[in-house]
Design a protein that fits this description.
alpha+beta, Rieske Iron-sulfur Protein, 2 helices
Length: 96
């Protein structure tokens, strides 16, 4: 059986029609070409900012980047900058 990237792999081509194997949904594993506009379109960027980047955890710095009291790191993401500082008591604080 030939593989058709538009349909995906058939799990078991000999599976009975009513079996779970025959009913498995097709999973798109990203075989379509990505539209290059998504990298340059300001509207897409704004939608992505609101739907993704403001709703997920991000690693702004690692502890080894600011080992000593007074050390700091600046995390920039789009139009925001977050200042991460090692305090005198050893705690780390972040300021938007």
């Amino acid at each position: 059986m030939a593989y058709d990237y538009r349909k995906g792999w058939v799990v078991n081509p000999n599976a009975p029609t009513e079996s779970l194997e025959a009913k498995l949904a097709y999973v798109d594993n990203g075989t379509q070409q990505i539209d290059p506009d998504r990298y340059y379109d300001p509207d897409f960027m704004a939608r992505e900012w609101n739907a993704l980047w403001t709703r997920t955890w991000l690693i702004a710095a690692v502890a080894s980047d600011i080992p000593e009291q007074g050390d700091y790191s600046v995390f920039r993401l789009r139009h925001e900058a977050i200042l991460i500082v090692r305090q005198a008591n050893g705690n780390v604080r972040a300021h938007l």
